[in-house]
Write a structure and sequence with these properties.
The protein has 623 residues and is α/β, with parallel strands linked by helices. It folds into four domains: 15-98 and 175-306, no CATH class; 125-172, no CATH class; 314-356 and 457-622, 3-Layer(aba) Sandwich (Rossmann fold), CATH 3.40.50.1100; 358-450, 3-Layer(aba) Sandwich (Rossmann fold). 41% of the residues lie in helices and 16% in strands. The strands form five sheets. Strands 10-11-19-16-17-18 form a six-stranded mixed β-sheet, sandwiched between helices. Strands 3-2-1-4-5 form a five-stranded mixed β-sheet. Strand 13 (402-406), helix 17 and strand 14 form a beta-alpha-beta unit.
Length: 623
C-alpha cells in the first residue's frame, strides 16, 4: 500500500531522467517552482496526465493551486517526467499493474463502476499481463488491428477464470499502458509517484455522486457533459480560463478536462486525502501496485452549485469566509416588519455600512491580501474611494505598503479615509478610468500587486461572504436588493445565492447602468456615467468576469433616479440615524420610488452598503 502518511518530499528521480534534467535548459516554469519553495511551498509540482492522439497531455500545478496550471503535450511518458516541471506526484488516466491471471477483471474496475451510476460503462475491464504482452508489434490499418485484437483475446480468455475478453477500446490503449509499465518495472522508485486514476471517478467524487451527463455520445463530444465537468473543475479552484482554454495540439478538449481531473486527484493525494480502490492496493508479480485512486473529500460540494459554470462557485466563497474571519466584521440585520416604507413586504436592512473602513469592500480587500503573495512593492489599487479605503485598511492590518490611485471626482472624506489608514494617495486623472490607467502603469513599473475592485475572483469571492453571512442571519429571504457599481458586490452575493430560492435584484443609478446594459447586450459594453452616486456606482464597463457571473445568477436590474437615491439617504438619517453615502442608499431608493415593487408578504432584504459620506452634503440634504 502507498503510505498516505508520507510528507511527500520530493522523491529521487530515475538516473535517465536526472541526466535529461542536467542537460535541459531551465525553463520559466522551473523558476516559478523554485520561487514556490522559497515562499514556503511544501513540495514541487504535481501533474494530472491523460493519453491523447499526440502522446500524453499533462496539467501541472503546485499542490495548493497557487500557480496557474500549465498544460503541455509530450510524445512519450518519460519526456513528461523529465520535463522542467519534474512532478513529484503524477496521477494518470491509464491502467497500472496487471496480474498474471485474473477473474472477471483486475479488481479496481469492479469496485468503482457502482459509484458511477449509469456512466459505469466508461470503465473498461482490463485483461491479464499475458494478454497485455501477447501482441506488441504495431499494426497498420483496420484489418491488422482486428487480427491483433483477436489474437490478444485468445490469450485473455485463456488466462481468465471466467474466459473474459477485452474490448477493442481497452486494446487500443495497450501501447501506452506498456510504456508506463516498462518504466515502473525498471524504475521502482516511480511506483509511489505515478498513480492510476479514472477521470469519471474523479468527477463523481467532486460532485458527491454519479454525473448527470456522459462526456461523449456515440463517440461525439456531448456539450452538456463537458459543461458539467468544467463546472466541477472550477468548483475545485481551477481557473475558469484554464478550464475553458483550447487544448494544445495533439489533444482534444475532453483529454484536457480529464488531465485536469487527474490534477485535482493529485492535489488531494498530496494533501493526504488519497483513497485507493481497493484499499490497500493489490500488487502484481512485479510488485507494481494495482489500484485506481480517488480521494476523500473534506466535504461535499452543494448540489445546487456543482452544476453551474459560475466562475466563482460556493466553495470559493466558503474558503474566503474562513480566510477573512476575524478580519471583517459580521454586520447586523435590522428587521423592519411588514409595512415599512409603505411597502407590503416584510423588509429588513443589512447594515454593511457598519463594516470596517465603511463599506463591504473590506471583505474583498482582505481576501486578496490573505490569498495572494504580496511583493516587496506592496499593493496598488484604483478607486473612487471605498475600495481604496478598504485596501488601505487591510494593508495596514497586514503590515503591507499600499498605493491608491483616485480620480479627481473622489469626495474629500473618502480620500482622507484612505490617508488615515496609512496608504499613499495619488490623484490619477479626472475620471475613474484615468486612475485605473495610472494604477496599471505603476504596477507594471514596480511589480506591486494590483487589487481590482471587481474584475478579480478573489475580490468577488470576498464580497460573496456577505451573501453567505446574510443567509445565515435571514434564512427565509425571498429577494435581496443590491446596489451595483462595477459589479463585484452583486457578483459575489448572486454567486452565493445561485441555485437557491433567493432572487437577487441589482439596483443601478439611471445615469450609470453598466450591468443592465451588459445583460441586455449579452456582454460588457461601455456606458456613460452621470449620477450623484458616480464616485461609488460609476463604472463604465462591468467587464467579462462580472458578466459571466451575473448573466445566470442575477434576476434583473432596476434603475433609480438620483432623487430616489438622495431621498433614501435622508430617510436613513431621519428614521435610523444612519449616515450613508449615495451608493450605499441606492438599494433602498429602489424600494422607496417603486422601481422594485415587492409582492405582499415577500421577505425582502435591502443592502445598505457604504457609509463614507460627506457629512456636509448629507446635512444639506436633510435640511
Amino acid at each position: 500500500m502507498v503510505d498516505m502518511g508520507l510528507s511527500w518530499r520530493r522523491r529521487a528521480c530515475p538516473r535517465p531522467i536526472l541526466a535529461a534534467l542536467h542537460t535541459r535548459r531551465e525553463a520559466p516554469a522551473r523558476s516559478v517552482l523554485r520561487r514556490s519553495h522559497e515562499e514556503g511551498g511544501t513540495m514541487g509540482w504535481i501533474a494530472g496526465v491523460d493519453g491523447c492522439k499526440g502522446g500524453w497531455i499533462a496539467a501541472f500545478s503546485d499542490p495548493e493551486f497557487r500557480a496557474t496550471p500549465a498544460i503541455r503535450c509530450f510524445r512519450n511518458f518519460e519526456e513528461m517526467l523529465s520535463s522542467e516541471f519534474e512532478p513529484s506526484i503524477v496521477a494518470v488516466d491509464m491502467p497500472i499493474g496487471f496480474p498474471d491471471e485474473i477473474g472477471k477483471s483486475r479488481g479496481p474496475e469492479q469496485l468503482i463502476k457502482p459509484l458511477l451510476g449509469r456512466l459505469g460503462n466508461a470503465v473498461f475491464d482490463m485483461p491479464s499481463r499475458q494478454a497485455l504482452e501477447a501482441v506488441t508489434r504495431p499494426w497498420k490499418g483496420l484489418t491488422e488491428l482486428l487480427a491483433a485484437h483477436a489474437a490478444t483475446n485468445v490469450v485473455a480468455r485463456a488466462t481468465s477464470t471466467v474466459g473474459a475478453a477485452c474490448s477493442i477500446q481497452a486494446f487500443c490503449l495497450f501501447g501506452k499502458i506498456r510504456e508506463i509499465d516498462t518504466l515502473l518495472r525498471t524504475e521502482t522508485n516511480l511506483r509511489q509517484r505515478v498513480l492510476e486514476i479514472h477521470p469519471e471517478l474523479a468527477f463523481a467524487t467532486m460532485r458527491g455522486g454519479p454525473l448527470a451527463h456522459p462526456k461523449k455520445i456515440k463517440g461525439r463530444i456531448n456539450e452538456s457533459g463537458m459543461a458539467e465537468r468544467r463546472a466541477l473543475l472550477i468548483a475545485q479552484g481551477l481557473p475558469h480560463e484554464t478550464v475553458q482554454a483550447r487544448p494544445p495540439r495533439g489533444a482534444g478538449a475532453d483529454d484536457a478536462l480529464d488531465a485536469l481531473a487527474a490534477l485535482v486527484v493529485a492535489r488531494h493525494i498530496a494533501a493526504g486525502r488519497g483513497r485507493p480502490f481497493p484499499e490497500p492496493p493489490g500488487h502484481d508479480s512485479h510488485g507494481i501496485p494495482i489500484a485506481i485512486w480517488s480521494y476523500r473529500p473534506d466535504r461535499l460540494p452543494p448540489q445546487d452549485t456543482a452544476m453551474t459554470e459560475n466562475p466563482v462557485p460556493r466553495p470559493m466563497i466558503e474558503a474566503a469566509a474562513q480566510r477573512i474571519a476575524g478580519h471583517a466584521r459580521v454586520t447586523p440585520v435590522m428587521g423592519l416588519g411588514i409595512g415599512a416604507f409603505g411597502s407590503d413586504a416584510d423588509s429588513s436592512l443589512k447594515l454593511e455600512c457598519l463594516q470596517h473602513a465603511g463599506s463591504f469592500k473590506t471583505r474583498g480587500a482582505f481576501n486578496n491580501l490573505l490569498s495572494l503573495d504580496v511583493p516587496a512593492a506592496g499593493v496598488a489599487a484604483a478607486s473612487g474611494g471605498n475600495h481604496g479605503a478598504a485596501v488601505a485598511y487591510a494593508a495596514r492590518a497586514r503590515g503591507v505598503k499600499a498605493t491608491i490611485f483616485v480620480p479627481e471626482i473622489s469626495p474629500p472624506p473618502k480620500i482622507e479615509a484612505i490617508r488615515r489608514f496609512g496608504a499613499e494617495v495619488v490623484i490619477g486623472g479626472a475620471q475613474y478610468d484615468d486612475a485605473q490607467a495610472a494604477c496599471d502603469r505603476f504596477v507594471a513599473e514596480t511589480g506591486a500587486l494590483k487589487i481590482h475592485p471587481f474584475a478579480a475572483k478573489e475580490t468577488i469571492a470576498g464580497q460573496g461572504t456577505l451573501g453567505r453571512e446574510w443567509q445565515e442571519q435571514e434564512p427565509d429571504l425571498d429577494t435581496v436588493l443590491v446596489a451595483v457599481g462595477g459589479g463585484g458586490l452583486i457578483s459575489g452575493i448572486a454567486a452565493w445565492f445561485a441555485g437557491t430560492k433567493v432572487k437577487v435584484v441589482g439596483v443601478e443609478p439611471a445615469g450609470s447602468r453598466a450591468l443592465q446594459a451588459a445583460l441586455e447586450a449579452g456582454g460588457p459594453v461601455q456606458v456613460e456615467v452621470a449620477s450623484v452616486a458616480a464616485d461609488s456606482l460609476g463604472a463604465r464597463n462591468v467587464g467579462p468576469l462580472v458578466h459571466a457571473v451575473c448573466k445566470d445568477t442575477v434576476d434583473h436590474v432596476v434603475l433609480v433616479p438620483d432623487e430616489a437615491i438622495t431621498g433614501a439617504q435622508v430617510t436613513l438619517w431621519r428614521d435610523f440615524r444612519l449616515a450613508v453615502e449615495p451608493g450605499g442608499a441606492a438599494a433602498l431608493g429602489a424600494l422607496l420610488c417603486g422601481a422594485y415593487r415587492p409582492k405582499p408578504g415577500e421577505r425582502l432584504g435591502v443592502l445598505v452598503c457604504g457609509a463614507n459620506v460627506d457629512l456636509g452634503k448629507l446635512a444639506a440634504l436633510a435640511g
